[in-house]
Amino acid sequence: MQQQEDRQFVTALARGLEVLAAFRPGEGALSNQELARRTGLPKSTVSRLSYTLTRLGYLQQEGENGQYRLGLALLALGAAALAGYDARAAAAPLMREFALANNVSVSLALRDGSDMVYLETCRSQARVSVQLSTGSRVPLATTAIGRAYFAGLPQAERDALLPLLAERYGGDWPALRDRLLRASADYGVHGYTASFGEYEPDVMAVGIHLPALLPGQPAMALNASGPAFAFDEAAMRERVAPALKALRQRIAPTPG
């Protein structure tokens, strides 16, 4: 692998970060055995890494069962990371207003590898809503927010992403690639992308690209989503999608 041939690449650091990345939003504590399964690392290696990360405050060990959960030291890193994205601060109050007005969940995300990571999520006051939160990861290729991010990129950047996605999906990639490219073409016509029950059967979602607001900031994407029992395709296309495009214009006004 290229990483193994890179003399600048610190394998021990990478393995420690793999252990931290094995935790998922909403989960409880994990054992060394589960961490080894998720990372593919030997359990003895994971044991040393989890011990070191605990000493540094990035993991916290539970006394009763010896399992680990993410430590408080990560909160400072997370807060610093989120503070670096000006779009989040600008978008959050407008997103809260949008969620309440349209009775949907609305999220802001940026790309990490072949996934989209949520930077901000605002939900309506409905009793049932899409339960994703800040830090959640969703796949780029099958979600409205990922497709919108992809569709709004310059052609050269889209082309550069395709091999990464092909590596992730293997034999499933040709069919997914066709759907992703169709979604990009639809974005050029309608100004939004859609995923109606493709990522999760009971979730309807539309997405829109959000260009970089400042030099050096990454492009992002917005989505609006709701449960399928409350929103059919017509409601998403005729009511929610135009409102989402108006929200994007408020966050990142374009001249004209």
TrEMBL record:
InterPro entries: GAF-like_dom_sf, HTH_MetabolicPath_Reg, Tscrpt_reg_IclR_C, Tscrpt_reg_IclR_N, WH-like_DNA-bd_sf, WH_DNA-bd_sf
Every IclR-ED domain range: 73-256
UniProt GO molecular function: DNA binding; DNA-binding transcription factor activity
Record-annotated HTH iclR-type domain positions: 10-72
UniProt keyword annotation of Transcription regulation present: yes
Presence of keyword Transcription regulation: yes
GO biological process, one term: negative regulation of DNA-templated transcription
PROSITE patterns hit by this protein: HTH_ICLR, ICLR_ED
Entry keyword set: DNA-binding, Transcription, Transcription regulation
Transmembrane feature ranges: none
Identification of the protein by name: Probable transcriptional regulator, AsnC family
Source species: Chromobacterium violaceum (strain ATCC 12472 / DSM 30191 / JCM 1249 / CCUG 213 / NBRC 12614 / NCIMB 9131 / NCTC 9757 / MK)
